[in-house]
Amino acid sequence: MKINKIKRMSRKFSMLFACIAFMSISSCDQDFEDINNAWDSKLYKAEVPGLFNGLISKMIKTSHHNRIPTAWLYQWNQSAAMYAASGYRLDDHVSQPWQNFYKDMANYREMERIIAESDDAANMTNISAMAKIIMSYKAINLALLYGDMPFTDAGKAFISPDDFRPAYDTQQFVIETALTDIGTAVTSLSGDAAQISIGASETLFGNDLDKWRKFANSIRLKYAMVIRDKDAAFADPIITDALSKSLLAPDETFSLDPNVITDLQINRGGFYRGNAYVRMGSTMWESMSSDNAVDGSGIYDLRTPLLFEPNEDDEWIPYPQNPDNTTATVTGNPHVDGRLNTDWYVNRSNFASLNVYYTNIRTIPQILVSGSEISFIKAELYNRGVGGVTADAAMAETNYNEGITASVNFWYNIAMTEPLWVVGKPTAMPTTVELDAMLANAAVAYDADAAVALSQIYEQSWISLFHQPFDSWNLQRRTGNATPFATPSPTSLVLDFNRLTYPASERETNRENWKTANGGSDLETDKTWFQQ
């Protein structure tokens, strides 16, 4: 009975929190067996399909960074502007990414144990490989959020009491180990008919091994590029290998899609209401319009009216990235649900805002990796001539244009197919003439000077990652603010923001390892290993 209780707990608590709960239960079982029993006396057994699907189901939290308010990410990477101090404390949110990852690590280790002890272990290679890819993806994301973290011994608290307080591994070790693991896992995927399928429990790609291979190779390329300038000797062979394998095409996107996954809805609205004080910022505006004409006549980016909306007077007035005492007070609450369902014209702001359809529609997919993203990575590789790739301006331009076109088409398709999207809904995909005009604009047209062209690649990649603000922030950090960036004022609330601080539980229950990892310094301004 106690073993089953511990297994149930492994699905409810993070590694460190679970240690405390385990010790409490062990000391309180005496004479309280009946109280500790489930009310209906049911016992639950962990099984591979359920554990695997649990890893996938939490990818929505991982990709959306476990309730870290998206509005904060937009402020850090300057995809939007902050107009007031938020009443939400960011340190109230730093625990959830940490806890969710270690819950998954405990369940992942349990799943691996079950597979290893099964008579059919040899026929579950694909299941192990897919789970390894998922957990490696999650580990890289967590390391990019915090820096150093427990990894080698993570999730082992239920195996041995010696692992209640795991040591931290460096960010470099975590990312590079995870990338190596993904490479090993994707190689082991087998089309052998003897391989066991977990059927409907594989809700990510529906047991399509070709999609798993594309996903694995694409994220290997994606994250190898994140660390490439810090460890080229490690990253370059991965980049070269990934480029030789099947990758996402420009018009392909791997996502958690409510239109495909039954009963999935992604509610982002709360990230933009109440204390989420963001509006369209001047940094983004300057990358979408050739001038400040409030009628929008200078707008050359076809995505502008899909990602943003004009103010209450139908004027395009962005909020300054660095406001001063002459900046008007912001009015309106444009992200209320009622604007979708009753009257779109109420509660609008005096500044241009994020499009209410974008922020409130719950069936917009959450992107894991997109073909547009891969195209921009290729463009950078050909522009710079790194990663085993020979510099080739023509190839760089081709991939650059493909990345922009794919991103524009993605958002037109979203707006056209979403039933709730009414005001400003496009009636057709952009024409070749419209796309060519955008690509030919002086600010967008690929420059003959490689250095200028590289800045264009970063700018257009940054725009295309609007729906992936964490990846946009990674791009900003790994390039040393080479994305569009207005230097924040010394009083800015998002000045020099480089990482999340660790949860308070780490200082309290794993203090020695926490202190060894950071020397007692745990600041948002501390740069992590991969940053320039």
The largest sheet is: 2 strands, antiparallel
| Strand arrangement in the largest pleated sheet | 1-3
Choose one word for the global shape: globular
Distance between the termini: 52 Å
Estimate what percentage of residues fall within beta strands. under 5%
The pLDDT mean sits at: 88
Number of strands: 6
State Rg. Answer: 24 Å
Layout of secondary structure:
Layout: H1 2-10, H2 15-28, H3 33-36, H4 48-57, H5 59-63, H6 70-77, E1 81-82, H7 95-117, H8 125-146, H9 171-188, H10 209-227, H11 232-243, E2 253-256, E3 278-279, H12 282-285, H13 304-307, E4 308-309, H14 338-341, E5 353-354, H15 356-360, E6 366-370, H16 371-384, H17 393-417, H18 432-440, H19 450-464, H20 469-478, H21 504-509, H22 511-518
Antiparallel strand pairs: 1-3, 2-6, 4-5
Helix pairs in contact: 4-7, 6-20, 7-8, 8-9, 8-10, 9-10, 10-11, 16-17, 16-19, 17-19
